[in-house]
Amino acid sequence: MNQDISLNHARMLDEKDELAIYHKRFFNSDDNLIYMDGNSLGRLPTDTIQRTSRIVKNEWGEQLIRSWGINWYQAPAYLGEKIAKFIGAGPDQVVVSDSTSVNLYKLAISALMLQPERKKIVTDALNFPSDLYLLQGCRQVLGGKHKIQVLEPVDGMRVETRKVLEAINEDTALVTLSHVVFKSGYLYDAKTITEYAHQKGALVLWDLSHSVGAVPVELDEWGADFAVGCTYKYINGGPGAPAFLYVRKDLQDKAISPIWGWFGERSPFSFGLEYAPANGINRFLSGTPPILSMMAIEPGLDLILEIGMPRLRNKSILLSEYLISLFDARLAPLGFILGSPREIEQRGSHISIQHPEAYRINQALIEEMNVIPDFREPNNLRLGLSPLYTSFEEVWSCIDRIQRVVTENKHLSFPNIRQVVT
Ligand SMILES: *Cc1c(COP(=O)(O)O)cnc(C)c1O
Are residues 373 and 398 in contact, defined by beta-carbon separation less than 8 angstroms? Predict the structure, then answer.
Protein backbone atom coordinates (compact mmCIF):
# COMPACT_ATOMS: atom_id res chain seq x y z
CA MET A 1 0.00 0.00 0.00
CA ASN A 2 1.44 3.36 -0.98
CA GLN A 3 1.57 5.89 1.79
CA ASP A 4 2.26 9.60 1.99
CA ILE A 5 6.05 9.87 2.22
CA SER A 6 6.30 13.34 3.75
CA LEU A 7 7.88 13.98 7.13
CA ASN A 8 4.61 15.53 8.26
CA HIS A 9 2.84 12.26 7.66
CA ALA A 10 5.40 10.43 9.83
CA ARG A 11 4.72 12.93 12.62
CA MET A 12 0.99 12.48 12.20
CA LEU A 13 1.42 8.69 12.54
CA ASP A 14 3.35 9.24 15.78
CA GLU A 15 0.57 11.45 17.10
CA LYS A 16 -1.98 8.74 16.42
CA ASP A 17 0.22 6.00 17.92
CA GLU A 18 -1.10 4.86 21.30
CA LEU A 19 2.25 3.22 22.13
CA ALA A 20 4.26 6.42 21.49
CA ILE A 21 4.26 7.10 25.24
CA TYR A 22 6.50 4.06 25.79
CA HIS A 23 9.38 5.73 23.96
CA LYS A 24 10.30 7.57 27.14
CA ARG A 25 10.34 4.41 29.21
CA PHE A 26 13.72 3.75 27.56
CA PHE A 27 17.01 5.45 28.27
CA ASN A 28 17.98 7.84 25.51
CA SER A 29 21.09 9.98 25.61
CA ASP A 30 20.95 11.18 22.00
CA ASP A 31 17.68 12.25 20.36
CA ASN A 32 19.33 12.40 16.97
CA LEU A 33 20.42 8.73 17.05
CA ILE A 34 18.28 6.44 14.90
CA TYR A 35 18.60 3.05 16.57
CA MET A 36 17.51 0.26 14.22
CA ASP A 37 19.20 -2.65 15.95
CA GLY A 38 16.74 -3.46 18.71
CA ASN A 39 16.43 -6.93 17.17
CA SER A 40 20.05 -7.58 18.12
CA LEU A 41 20.38 -5.67 21.38
CA GLY A 42 17.25 -4.00 22.73
CA ARG A 43 17.41 -0.58 24.35
CA LEU A 44 17.75 -0.08 28.10
CA PRO A 45 14.40 0.32 29.92
CA THR A 46 14.71 3.20 32.41
CA ASP A 47 13.22 1.00 35.15
CA THR A 48 16.15 -1.37 34.70
CA ILE A 49 18.52 1.32 35.94
CA GLN A 50 16.83 1.49 39.35
CA ARG A 51 16.20 -2.24 39.41
CA THR A 52 19.83 -3.19 38.84
CA SER A 53 21.10 -0.74 41.41
CA ARG A 54 18.66 -2.24 43.92
CA ILE A 55 19.86 -5.75 43.10
CA VAL A 56 23.47 -4.74 43.56
CA LYS A 57 23.08 -2.59 46.69
CA ASN A 58 20.22 -4.17 48.60
CA GLU A 59 20.02 -7.75 47.42
CA TRP A 60 23.73 -8.44 47.04
CA GLY A 61 25.30 -5.74 49.25
CA GLU A 62 22.94 -5.85 52.23
CA GLN A 63 21.15 -9.17 52.13
CA LEU A 64 24.14 -11.11 50.87
CA ILE A 65 23.51 -14.83 50.69
CA ARG A 66 20.09 -14.44 52.31
CA SER A 67 18.84 -13.20 48.92
CA TRP A 68 18.96 -16.75 47.59
CA GLY A 69 16.17 -17.61 49.98
CA ILE A 70 14.27 -14.35 49.42
CA ASN A 71 13.94 -14.19 45.64
CA TRP A 72 17.01 -15.45 43.77
CA TYR A 73 16.47 -19.18 43.91
CA GLN A 74 12.97 -18.86 42.48
CA ALA A 75 13.99 -16.38 39.76
CA PRO A 76 14.36 -18.84 36.83
CA ALA A 77 10.81 -20.12 37.36
CA TYR A 78 9.30 -16.80 38.39
CA LEU A 79 10.65 -14.95 35.34
CA GLY A 80 9.81 -17.96 33.16
CA GLU A 81 6.15 -17.61 34.20
CA LYS A 82 6.16 -13.99 33.08
CA ILE A 83 7.53 -14.95 29.67
CA ALA A 84 5.04 -17.83 29.44
CA LYS A 85 2.20 -15.31 29.48
CA PHE A 86 3.18 -13.81 26.14
CA ILE A 87 4.31 -16.95 24.34
CA GLY A 88 1.03 -18.77 24.90
CA ALA A 89 2.36 -21.24 27.46
CA GLY A 90 0.40 -22.46 30.48
CA PRO A 91 2.15 -22.63 33.88
CA ASP A 92 5.20 -24.73 34.77
CA GLN A 93 6.59 -25.02 31.25
CA VAL A 94 9.07 -22.14 30.93
CA VAL A 95 12.27 -21.30 32.84
CA VAL A 96 14.97 -18.72 32.33
CA SER A 97 18.42 -20.28 32.15
CA ASP A 98 21.77 -20.33 30.36
CA SER A 99 22.08 -18.92 26.82
CA THR A 100 19.88 -19.66 23.82
CA SER A 101 22.72 -21.75 22.40
CA VAL A 102 23.06 -23.92 25.51
CA ASN A 103 19.29 -24.30 25.83
CA LEU A 104 18.98 -25.37 22.21
CA TYR A 105 21.65 -27.98 22.81
CA LYS A 106 19.95 -29.30 25.94
CA LEU A 107 16.57 -29.58 24.26
CA ALA A 108 17.80 -30.95 20.93
CA ILE A 109 19.70 -33.72 22.72
CA SER A 110 16.63 -34.44 24.88
CA ALA A 111 14.45 -34.68 21.79
CA LEU A 112 16.86 -36.95 19.94
CA MET A 113 17.25 -39.23 22.94
CA LEU A 114 13.47 -39.60 23.14
CA GLN A 115 13.42 -40.95 19.57
CA PRO A 116 16.53 -43.13 19.33
CA GLU A 117 15.25 -45.15 16.37
CA ARG A 118 14.72 -42.06 14.20
CA LYS A 119 17.76 -40.60 12.48
CA LYS A 120 16.75 -37.43 10.67
CA ILE A 121 16.86 -33.79 11.81
CA VAL A 122 15.12 -31.22 9.59
CA THR A 123 16.21 -27.59 9.64
CA ASP A 124 16.97 -24.86 7.08
CA ALA A 125 19.80 -22.79 5.63
CA LEU A 126 18.13 -19.62 6.93
CA ASN A 127 18.65 -20.71 10.51
CA PHE A 128 21.03 -18.84 12.77
CA PRO A 129 24.40 -20.56 12.13
CA SER A 130 24.90 -21.16 15.86
CA ASP A 131 21.77 -23.32 15.80
CA LEU A 132 23.23 -25.39 12.97
CA TYR A 133 26.58 -25.73 14.75
CA LEU A 134 24.77 -26.97 17.84
CA LEU A 135 22.90 -29.58 15.81
CA GLN A 136 26.20 -30.73 14.31
CA GLY A 137 27.56 -31.01 17.85
CA CYS A 138 24.51 -33.03 18.94
CA ARG A 139 25.05 -35.41 16.03
CA GLN A 140 28.68 -35.90 17.01
CA VAL A 141 27.96 -36.45 20.70
CA LEU A 142 25.24 -38.98 19.89
CA GLY A 143 27.60 -41.09 17.81
CA GLY A 144 27.29 -39.54 14.34
CA LYS A 145 24.17 -41.54 13.41
CA HIS A 146 21.91 -38.61 12.58
CA LYS A 147 21.44 -36.95 9.22
CA ILE A 148 20.82 -33.20 9.25
CA GLN A 149 18.69 -32.09 6.32
CA VAL A 150 19.24 -28.37 5.71
CA LEU A 151 16.43 -27.00 3.51
CA GLU A 152 17.41 -24.31 1.02
CA PRO A 153 15.30 -21.18 0.59
CA VAL A 154 13.55 -20.56 -2.75
CA ASP A 155 14.26 -16.86 -3.13
CA GLY A 156 16.99 -16.38 -0.54
CA MET A 157 14.44 -15.33 2.03
CA ARG A 158 11.97 -18.14 2.75
CA VAL A 159 11.39 -21.86 2.68
CA GLU A 160 7.80 -22.63 1.71
CA THR A 161 5.77 -24.54 4.27
CA ARG A 162 5.14 -27.24 1.65
CA LYS A 163 8.89 -27.88 1.36
CA VAL A 164 9.22 -28.28 5.10
CA LEU A 165 6.33 -30.72 5.23
CA GLU A 166 7.77 -32.74 2.35
CA ALA A 167 11.01 -33.19 4.26
CA ILE A 168 9.33 -34.66 7.35
CA ASN A 169 8.88 -38.43 7.31
CA GLU A 170 8.78 -41.51 9.56
CA ASP A 171 12.53 -41.29 10.09
CA THR A 172 12.40 -37.68 11.33
CA ALA A 173 13.22 -37.32 15.00
CA LEU A 174 13.31 -33.54 15.18
CA VAL A 175 12.23 -30.49 13.19
CA THR A 176 13.93 -27.33 14.40
CA LEU A 177 13.65 -23.88 12.86
CA SER A 178 13.83 -20.23 13.81
CA HIS A 179 10.24 -19.03 13.97
CA VAL A 180 11.37 -15.68 12.51
CA VAL A 181 14.59 -16.05 10.53
CA PHE A 182 17.41 -13.72 11.36
CA LYS A 183 18.29 -12.32 7.94
CA SER A 184 15.07 -11.90 5.99
CA GLY A 185 12.63 -11.73 8.89
CA TYR A 186 10.53 -14.52 7.29
CA LEU A 187 7.92 -15.83 9.72
CA TYR A 188 7.14 -19.55 9.60
CA ASP A 189 3.66 -21.02 9.88
CA ALA A 190 4.54 -22.74 13.14
CA LYS A 191 1.17 -24.32 13.79
CA THR A 192 0.90 -26.10 10.44
CA ILE A 193 4.48 -27.38 10.66
CA THR A 194 4.12 -28.55 14.25
CA GLU A 195 0.85 -30.36 13.58
CA TYR A 196 2.22 -32.09 10.50
CA ALA A 197 5.43 -33.13 12.28
CA HIS A 198 3.30 -34.71 14.99
CA GLN A 199 1.30 -36.67 12.43
CA LYS A 200 4.61 -38.16 11.32
CA GLY A 201 5.71 -38.78 14.92
CA ALA A 202 8.48 -36.14 14.92
CA LEU A 203 9.19 -33.63 17.68
CA VAL A 204 9.46 -29.88 17.05
CA LEU A 205 11.80 -27.33 18.63
CA TRP A 206 11.20 -23.65 17.84
CA ASP A 207 13.84 -20.96 18.26
CA LEU A 208 11.87 -17.84 19.18
CA SER A 209 14.83 -15.46 19.46
CA HIS A 210 13.60 -13.11 16.75
CA SER A 211 9.90 -13.47 17.49
CA VAL A 212 9.45 -13.21 21.23
CA GLY A 213 8.13 -9.76 22.16
CA ALA A 214 7.54 -8.84 18.51
CA VAL A 215 5.13 -11.37 17.01
CA PRO A 216 2.43 -13.52 18.61
CA VAL A 217 3.60 -16.94 19.75
CA GLU A 218 1.13 -19.63 20.88
CA LEU A 219 3.22 -22.60 21.99
CA ASP A 220 0.42 -24.54 23.69
CA GLU A 221 -2.00 -23.96 20.84
CA TRP A 222 0.57 -25.02 18.23
CA GLY A 223 1.26 -28.12 20.30
CA ALA A 224 4.99 -27.30 20.29
CA ASP A 225 7.23 -29.79 22.07
CA PHE A 226 10.19 -27.57 22.82
CA ALA A 227 11.19 -23.92 22.38
CA VAL A 228 14.07 -21.63 23.23
CA GLY A 229 14.50 -17.89 22.93
CA CYS A 230 16.56 -14.89 23.65
CA THR A 231 15.84 -12.07 26.12
CA TYR A 232 18.27 -9.39 24.98
CA LYS A 233 16.53 -8.65 21.64
CA TYR A 234 12.87 -7.51 21.69
CA ILE A 235 12.58 -8.24 25.42
CA ASN A 236 15.28 -5.66 26.19
CA GLY A 237 16.87 -7.72 28.96
CA GLY A 238 20.43 -6.45 28.47
CA PRO A 239 23.61 -7.72 26.80
CA GLY A 240 24.06 -11.45 27.31
CA ALA A 241 20.96 -11.71 29.48
CA PRO A 242 20.06 -15.37 30.11
CA ALA A 243 17.68 -17.06 27.70
CA PHE A 244 14.53 -19.12 28.27
CA LEU A 245 13.38 -22.58 27.39
CA TYR A 246 9.98 -24.26 27.09
CA VAL A 247 9.21 -27.96 27.40
CA ARG A 248 5.61 -29.10 26.98
CA LYS A 249 4.19 -30.38 30.25
CA ASP A 250 3.60 -34.01 29.24
CA LEU A 251 7.17 -34.38 27.93
CA GLN A 252 8.88 -33.03 31.02
CA ASP A 253 9.19 -36.25 32.93
CA LYS A 254 10.32 -38.25 29.90
CA ALA A 255 12.88 -35.83 28.50
CA ILE A 256 16.32 -35.71 30.12
CA SER A 257 18.72 -32.79 29.95
CA PRO A 258 22.26 -33.77 28.90
CA ILE A 259 23.68 -31.39 31.52
CA TRP A 260 23.20 -32.97 34.92
CA GLY A 261 23.88 -29.98 37.13
CA TRP A 262 22.72 -29.46 40.69
CA PHE A 263 20.09 -26.82 39.82
CA GLY A 264 18.29 -29.49 37.80
CA GLU A 265 18.63 -32.07 40.54
CA ARG A 266 15.67 -33.28 42.60
CA SER A 267 17.07 -32.19 45.92
CA PRO A 268 20.17 -30.04 45.38
CA PHE A 269 20.67 -29.13 49.01
CA SER A 270 20.78 -32.74 50.16
CA PHE A 271 24.15 -32.90 48.42
CA GLY A 272 23.64 -36.56 47.57
CA LEU A 273 26.26 -38.11 45.34
CA GLU A 274 23.97 -39.62 42.68
CA TYR A 275 22.00 -37.43 40.26
CA ALA A 276 18.24 -37.76 40.09
CA PRO A 277 16.47 -35.28 37.79
CA ALA A 278 13.96 -32.89 39.34
CA ASN A 279 10.33 -33.41 38.44
CA GLY A 280 8.99 -30.98 35.89
CA ILE A 281 10.63 -28.14 34.05
CA ASN A 282 13.34 -27.51 36.67
CA ARG A 283 15.29 -30.53 35.46
CA PHE A 284 16.36 -28.39 32.50
CA LEU A 285 18.26 -25.97 34.71
CA SER A 286 21.98 -26.60 35.03
CA GLY A 287 24.06 -24.53 37.46
CA THR A 288 23.95 -21.24 39.37
CA PRO A 289 22.39 -18.58 37.16
CA PRO A 290 23.96 -15.13 36.57
CA ILE A 291 21.67 -13.35 39.02
CA LEU A 292 22.57 -9.76 38.14
CA SER A 293 21.77 -10.30 34.46
CA MET A 294 18.81 -12.48 35.19
CA MET A 295 17.02 -10.08 37.52
CA ALA A 296 17.65 -7.24 35.06
CA ILE A 297 15.27 -8.86 32.54
CA GLU A 298 12.19 -8.20 34.61
CA PRO A 299 11.45 -4.54 33.72
CA GLY A 300 11.56 -5.49 30.02
CA LEU A 301 9.11 -8.33 30.64
CA ASP A 302 6.79 -6.06 32.59
CA LEU A 303 6.60 -3.57 29.73
CA ILE A 304 5.52 -6.30 27.32
CA LEU A 305 2.96 -7.64 29.79
CA GLU A 306 1.62 -4.14 30.36
CA ILE A 307 1.00 -3.55 26.64
CA GLY A 308 0.16 -7.07 25.50
CA MET A 309 1.21 -8.85 22.31
CA PRO A 310 -1.77 -7.86 20.11
CA ARG A 311 -0.98 -4.15 20.45
CA LEU A 312 2.75 -4.75 19.98
CA ARG A 313 2.15 -6.80 16.85
CA ASN A 314 -0.21 -4.16 15.50
CA LYS A 315 2.39 -1.41 15.94
CA SER A 316 5.11 -3.61 14.48
CA ILE A 317 3.02 -4.18 11.34
CA LEU A 318 2.27 -0.47 10.96
CA LEU A 319 5.98 0.34 11.28
CA SER A 320 7.10 -2.28 8.78
CA GLU A 321 4.41 -1.43 6.22
CA TYR A 322 5.39 2.21 6.54
CA LEU A 323 9.06 1.38 6.10
CA ILE A 324 8.32 -0.65 2.96
CA SER A 325 6.33 2.25 1.47
CA LEU A 326 9.25 4.61 2.01
CA PHE A 327 11.62 1.97 0.69
CA ASP A 328 9.63 1.61 -2.55
CA ALA A 329 9.46 5.34 -3.10
CA ARG A 330 12.98 6.35 -2.12
CA LEU A 331 15.41 3.42 -2.03
CA ALA A 332 14.23 0.99 -4.72
CA PRO A 333 15.07 3.58 -7.43
CA LEU A 334 18.67 3.63 -6.08
CA GLY A 335 19.21 -0.09 -6.71
CA PHE A 336 18.08 -1.50 -3.34
CA ILE A 337 16.12 -4.74 -3.28
CA LEU A 338 13.73 -5.75 -0.51
CA GLY A 339 15.17 -8.81 1.27
CA SER A 340 12.07 -9.50 3.37
CA PRO A 341 8.64 -10.84 2.44
CA ARG A 342 6.01 -8.27 1.49
CA GLU A 343 3.24 -10.41 2.97
CA ILE A 344 2.46 -9.19 6.48
CA GLU A 345 1.64 -12.66 7.77
CA GLN A 346 5.05 -13.93 6.61
CA ARG A 347 7.09 -11.21 8.27
CA GLY A 348 8.53 -10.60 11.74
CA SER A 349 9.60 -7.18 13.00
CA HIS A 350 12.77 -6.49 11.07
CA ILE A 351 13.27 -5.69 7.41
CA SER A 352 16.32 -6.51 5.34
CA ILE A 353 17.19 -4.32 2.42
CA GLN A 354 19.86 -5.45 0.01
CA HIS A 355 22.42 -3.49 -1.95
CA PRO A 356 25.76 -4.54 -3.48
CA GLU A 357 27.40 -1.86 -1.31
CA ALA A 358 25.47 -2.73 1.86
CA TYR A 359 28.62 -3.25 3.92
CA ARG A 360 30.01 0.20 3.23
CA ILE A 361 26.61 1.87 3.44
CA ASN A 362 26.23 0.35 6.90
CA GLN A 363 29.56 1.86 7.96
CA ALA A 364 28.71 5.28 6.56
CA LEU A 365 25.37 5.21 8.40
CA ILE A 366 27.06 4.41 11.70
CA GLU A 367 30.07 6.70 11.36
CA GLU A 368 28.55 9.72 9.63
CA MET A 369 24.79 9.64 9.85
CA ASN A 370 24.11 8.59 13.45
CA VAL A 371 22.03 5.61 12.33
CA ILE A 372 22.65 2.14 13.80
CA PRO A 373 21.32 -0.68 11.63
CA ASP A 374 23.36 -3.85 11.18
CA PHE A 375 24.92 -5.69 8.33
CA ARG A 376 24.46 -9.38 7.56
CA GLU A 377 26.40 -11.16 4.85
CA PRO A 378 26.49 -10.94 1.93
CA ASN A 379 24.55 -7.74 1.19
CA ASN A 380 21.86 -7.21 3.81
CA LEU A 381 21.29 -4.05 5.74
CA ARG A 382 19.00 -5.09 8.55
CA LEU A 383 16.53 -2.62 10.03
CA GLY A 384 14.99 -3.70 13.32
CA LEU A 385 11.66 -2.18 14.32
CA SER A 386 10.91 -2.41 18.01
CA PRO A 387 7.21 -1.83 18.60
CA LEU A 388 8.06 -0.62 22.10
CA TYR A 389 10.18 2.34 21.16
CA THR A 390 10.71 2.86 17.41
CA SER A 391 8.78 5.89 16.15
CA PHE A 392 7.47 6.56 12.65
CA GLU A 393 9.63 9.66 12.47
CA GLU A 394 12.69 7.53 13.19
CA VAL A 395 11.74 5.22 10.33
CA TRP A 396 11.39 8.25 8.09
CA SER A 397 14.77 9.65 9.15
CA CYS A 398 16.40 6.26 8.75
CA ILE A 399 15.26 5.96 5.12
CA ASP A 400 16.12 9.61 4.50
CA ARG A 401 19.67 9.14 5.80
CA ILE A 402 20.19 5.93 3.83
CA GLN A 403 19.10 7.74 0.69
CA ARG A 404 21.53 10.56 1.42
CA VAL A 405 24.45 8.18 1.95
CA VAL A 406 23.88 6.65 -1.46
CA THR A 407 23.04 9.77 -3.47
CA GLU A 408 25.98 11.65 -1.95
CA ASN A 409 28.30 8.61 -2.29
CA LYS A 410 29.29 8.85 1.36
CA HIS A 411 29.90 5.10 1.57
CA LEU A 412 32.69 5.22 -1.02
CA SER A 413 35.17 6.61 1.51
CA PHE A 414 34.87 3.49 3.72
CA PRO A 415 36.98 0.35 3.25
CA ASN A 416 35.39 -2.90 2.16
CA ILE A 417 37.26 -4.92 4.80
CA ARG A 418 35.01 -6.76 7.25
CA GLN A 419 35.35 -6.01 10.96
CA VAL A 420 35.12 -8.61 13.73
CA VAL A 421 31.64 -7.68 14.96
CA THR A 422 29.09 -6.48 12.46
C1 LIG B 1 20.19 -14.20 18.73
C2 LIG B 1 19.96 -15.62 18.42
C3 LIG B 1 20.61 -16.61 19.16
C4 LIG B 1 21.58 -16.20 20.22
O5 LIG B 1 22.16 -17.23 20.89
P6 LIG B 1 23.16 -16.92 22.08
O7 LIG B 1 23.37 -18.21 22.72
O8 LIG B 1 22.52 -15.88 22.96
O9 LIG B 1 24.42 -16.35 21.50
C10 LIG B 1 20.34 -17.94 18.86
N11 LIG B 1 19.48 -18.27 17.88
C12 LIG B 1 18.85 -17.32 17.14
C13 LIG B 1 17.89 -17.73 16.08
C14 LIG B 1 19.08 -15.98 17.38
O15 LIG B 1 18.48 -15.05 16.66
Answer: yes
Residues 94-139 have pLDDT tens digits of 999 999 999 999 999 999 999 999 999 999 999 999 999 999 999 9
Say yes or no to pLDDT of 422 above 80: no
Ligand 1 center from residue 230 Cα (angstroms): 6
Whether 111 and 174 have beta carbons less than 8 Å apart is answered as yes
Measuring CA to CA, which residue among 378, 325, 373, 321 is closest to residue 345? 321
Residue 420 domain-assigned (yes or no): no
Q: Tell me whether residue 25 is one of the annotated catalytic residues.
A: no
CA of residue 231 to ligand 1 center, whole Å: 10
Residue 275 backbone class (left: φ over 0; alpha: ψ -120 to 50; beta: rest): beta
CATH of the domain at 331: 3.90.1150.10
Three-class SS state of 69: helix
CB 327, CB 353: distance < 8 Å:
yes
Shared-domain flag, residues 265 and 404:
no
Model pLDDT for residues 341-387, shown as the tens digit of each residue: 999 999 999 999 999 999 999 999 999 999 999 999 999 999 999 99
pTM higher than 0.90:
yes
Distance 227 CA to ligand 1 centre (A): 12
Structural domain total, the chain: 2
Given 124, 207, 225, 374, the catalytic residue: 207
